[in-house]
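This part of the workshop introduces the protein records we will be handling. Each record describes a single protein and holds just a pair of labelled lines. Instead of coordinates, the fold is spelled out as a row of discrete tokens. To make this concrete, we reproduce a full record directly below:
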Amino acid sequence: MRDVNRGVGSGEWGVAAPRSDHTPLPTPDSRQLWTVHLGRMAYAEALELQRSIAHARIAGGVPEDVLLLVEHPPVVTLGRSSKERHLTASPELLATRGVELFEVERGGDVTFHGPGQLVGYPIVDLKRHKRDLHWYLRQVEEALIVALGDLGIACCRNLGYTGVWVDGEGRGSSDEGLTEPSRPSTLDPRPSRKIASIGVHARDWVTWHGFALNVTTDLSFFDLIVPCGIAGVDMTSVARELRVDAGAVDSARVERAVARAFGRVFDLEPVLVPLDFLNAEPRVRHGADPEPDPEPAHHGH
């Protein structure tokens, strides 16, 4: 019997600290994307944090959409659609590799998070955008496709699957990518490769969970699972596609590209804020309560 963390917490994350005086306050007409760089954080801690912020977004305590950017220690997460057979590693092997295991409320199957991976948790109120989770998934894909294009990697969707895939050539045309001599000199003949996975959850049309973009990830960790339940999928990373060593990839630049792309795709102004800027105290709503979604929704991968 496997030892699984259920992802159930106390909801006591302290996110109601005073805001910084150096960050612009929202106005009734503002459309900001509060972006928080969390650095390395344990999965359980980040899970409680995003739940707390999402609940505050629903209650009106956080007035703008939020994008949490984080890196996790090695962890395998099981979504609502995960199958037992897709976790191929034994509990002993997971322990040997230092990998935690969590069952969570997001959609999708099994996936891996770990060092060198940029994990993003967009906490977005779809009532301000479009009340359609399928639309939202396509928007998240589009933001990652735009960001990776800016980094010099041409990506696309793969019909029938959620997530972001590298196209047959794997090269973008953006001047913001690596300098030309450092780019691949030959086209990559491999079939489409998956570079980012997506799995979301929503309640009252507010989303949490999100995406995992492989930047300099040790791809051997994906051998522990059937990634996203797709047999034979070829997982790839930014470093692999650019044919560079992990140390040559500027992770901060990747984060900036992703935040800019999310702002562009969702028509929001990215604003970098510290964590203590978020105020999760409920606010009084004006007017009628918004129409809730009939059931909590889960979508991915």
Notes: Residues 133-150 form the longest helix (18 residues). The chain has one domain: 32-278. The first strand starts at residue 32 and ends at 40.
